[in-house]
Amino acid sequence: MTFLFGGAARGADDAYKLGLEAYGKGNYAAAASHFDSALQKTQNNPLLWYYDALCYHQLKNWSMAKSRYKTTALSFPLTEPGRRAAAALRAIDPTFVAPNSPATTSTSGQSDKGSSGASATAENTAPAPKSSTAEADQALAQELTRLPDTAHFYFKKGHQGHMEVDLMVNGHPVKAIFDTGASALFYKDQLKEAGLDLNKAKVGKGTRGWAGVEVPTEVMPAEIKLGTLTRTINIKMPETSTALSDNLIGQDFIKGYQYEIDDRGGRVDLKKNLGTKQAKLNPLYDIPIQIIGGKEFIVFTVNSQYAKAFIDTGAANTIFDEFSAARFGAVPTGEVIHMTGVGGDLTMKKAYVNIRIGGMYRDNFPILIGGSGACALGQDLMDGWRYKVDRENKLLRFFH
């Protein structure tokens, strides 16, 4: 079993570093003790859970190894430690069933106004069981017959690059961020202030932010009107927001549509998937995507190494988890960014990397490292481009 050393350990607390040192010397009992101590301070780092599982695996303490692997695999399914934990767990526990697809992770800017403006929160929800997938697809197909073939809406770029939109929720004006990494999340206090009746809300599943802390929510159906499209969807509602929290509207609202974003023009065009014939591809401007958990992932290069991330219009900044950042050789500058949002406060480290996506090349591009989510491509990377997410042909298409 290979232990994963690297930059992720640098700058960690003393217990973390002591655990790494002990593991490297083959002292697995001491390493587990140190990692357990670190987990008492923070539970938001998938590397800690995974390394602790490795220790118990080496010690043949199968119950603890399974427990730690399971936490890593189910809480951080989009991260490399989460995927490796799932594979290791299947090897020692054939009854374990990994999620059908990675948990959806959405990011949207929720920045500390005193920071440099980089920010993100994440919303994680488990995928629907297989038994409900066919019914959901059938319901979506029936709904789409009642919706227009095309629609559009406009957005304004916020001071941190977020796509701010004005929409109506049950006939009441509400502000939100268009976030393709999110489903639909609205804060109850903001909806009440807008005049909505929330008496029909029911208890829903919790949601997690980049801080990794689960926040309880309620859920209810609501009619959302954004631009020329109106549809009824279920919205999730945390109890209370802060002055830094933004409502999110994303995948649940545009489900069944392709979307084209004109970043400079401030417009999003929606078009149903109608089985149109694909035009000839240009490898510089037509980038293959993989749709996982409702989000679009692409493969690109970071410092000449292959990477995978999802496109997130709600993220002001491009974010890498610590494991990936270490693998790509992203060295933190020492600058720390403080953020707050769904699930609480957290800090991110700044670094610079070279990114290539098709014909787009960004040299010495700033990224943020940290959080409990995966790798997300934010608005800073897409700034100034006009691009289309062609779900029908599974392409990210840049216009040139």
What does it look like?
- With 400 residues, this protein is an alpha+beta fold.
- The strands form four sheets. Strands 3, 14, 15, 16, 17, 18, 19, 20, 21, 22, 23, 24 and 25 form a 13-stranded mixed beta sheet that branches.
- It is globular, with a radius of gyration of 21 Å.
List the helices and strands and how they pair.
Blueprint: H1 14-24, H2 28-39, H3 46-58, H4 62-75, H5 80-92, E1 104-108, E2 121-125, H6 130-144, E3 150-154, E4 156-157, E5 163-169, E6 172-178, E7 184-185, H7 188-193, E8 202-203, E9 207-208, E10 214-215, E11 217-226, E12 229-238, E13 248-249, H8 251-254, E14 257-262, E15 267-272, E16 286-292, E17 295-302, E18 305-311, E19 319-320, H9 322-327, E20 336-341, E21 344-357, E22 360-369, E23 376-377, H10 379-382, E24 386-390, E25 395-398
Parallel strand pairs: 6-13, 18-23, 19-22
Antiparallel strand pairs: 1-2, 3-15, 4-5, 5-6, 5-11, 7-13, 8-11, 9-10, 11-12, 14-15, 14-24, 16-17, 16-25, 17-18, 17-21, 20-21, 21-22, 24-25
Kindly state the percentage of residues in helix.
10-25%
Rg result: 21 Å
Structural class, please? Answer: alpha+beta
The protein's oligomeric status is: single chain
Average pLDDT taken over every residue: 79
What is the terminal-to-terminal distance? 47 Å
